[in-house]
Amino acid sequence: MNNSDLRTTIKNQEILNALKLDSANLKKMTAHNFIVDSESGPYKTIQEAIDAAEPGSTIKIAPGLYNDNIYINKPDLTLEPKEKVGDIILVVQNKPAIRVNLQPGQSCKISSMKLSHSGTNENIEEIEKLMQEKEFTLNLFGGGKVLDGISQYSECEPDLELVNKFPIEPDMNCILYVEGGELVMEKCLLSLNFIISNNRNILPAVIVTENGKIDFSQVEIKGNINHETIGVILRKGNAKIDKSKIYGHLFGGIAIWSNKNNVIKITNSKIYKNSKMGIHCVGEDGEVLIEGNKIENNNGSGVKIGIANKCQIIKNEIKQNQIGVEVISGEPFIFSNKIDKNYTDGILTNTFHNIRCDAIIKNNLSICRNSDNGIHCKGLNNYTKIELNSFIAYNKKAGIKIDEEATVSIFKNKVQKNFTQGILLVESSSAVIEQNEIKENIKANIAMGGINAINTCILKNIISGGRCEGIFIIESGNCWIKENNISDNNDGIVCITSLPEISFNDISKNKSNGIMVMKDSRPNIVSNIITDNDGIGLFIRDKSWGKIKDNTIKSNEIELVLERKNEFQQSILSDNSVTGDIRLPQGVSCNIF
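^ F-box only protein, putative, sequence as received from the core. Prediction below:
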């Protein structure tokens, strides 16, 4: 063989090897794509294709109606449409429509499918047995007597909420059950709108257990107005839900039981028209991120936070819910939201069995036009912090209400134009109210008092424009009103049967009196500037008296009125700078007899 023939032989062999390689690659590529078509095949059900597939394969599904339950236990599978036009619809009658059981670190992906569940079972005897077992379990967990689904969970304590007592099992009715690995889902519709019979049980759309994870983008989860459904149950699983919609569920949008090791993010989504709640977070030290969502028209709390949960609620629009945000002995961070037009309180923080509540309500853009109070804090050991909120306004009751032995910090907020009080402290509650702008509220800008009302400090605030009192105090123990600017109210300060210290304030240009002390009050009024009020600068009525010293009282219509003569009358004149009209009781004796 000459050199020319040798070169030709080598070249032909290289071409042959290349053709064999291309053929192998083509075969390999074909092996990783499995076509599902309910009419023409080669695979007529989705599960057949999954069973035949290798890890990493793509299942391409033709448009059509499918009714097989899907079990995914192979990693890196992708279920996607074969064609751009037409719907892939999966409807099952019992068990999970799709069950994902992968190892930690493994994942699968589903896109552009419509999934539904009719809520029935194949065997009626199994239904009855399952219901008996679940009802027994519910009673064991404190659910009470056997009732329908809603009644079983209507009244439960915060440490026995639905998400941590609801019985979960791999073969239960739901659309998605993720027990291991990660499910990535995009552009899918999960609908529970076609339930035929749910046998008095609650039907979740999505369940994620402790070893599972979901990553949803543009997923729509639709409930049923006639049957008890819930959108998502996260039972110590991980989740990312972005740009999705969850709505129409009688038992709430998303129920989360998490701990500090879970990563859960709900972002840029719309959670609306659910009953019970929009989003409910329980679990000690759970740090769920709820950011950039629209949470509205839920017949319950928009967001509900349980005991010791550290949920972060940031940059959401929360409106037209029964309560905007409800906190029960939790530690959430509520930041930069719009919490408006809710049907009771905008934000309610409360304590359960006196377990401490440490909510932080900070830098919210608006808390306004709520049908009760803008912010309502109540309960012993409630130490909520309310800071730097720029617009607490137009609420039909108080801007901020403190009640039932709560002790709250209120710092650098703007509280204005509420339909009753700006800040209301009821009976045994107390607060530190510092550096706020409290203006133009219909009743008192600040009102406080009642049984065991003590230890409130009102410091360095601008308190102005109230149609009634700047500060109204009744039956209050020791409290401190210091370094405030109190102007343009009807009365500056009205004190009834109380023991306040009023010092270093600028009290001016009020339409009636600067300070009026009534009944049997014992105030200390020290080093105030009381000027330019349209009525009386300092008005001491009834049996009231106290330490009144180093005040400057001038340029009022009447500077000082003392209604009854007492032993301190002369010292009031000598210890204060009073210039102008002074009206004191005269010592007149009768000589008729």
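The chain has a mean pLDDT of 87.
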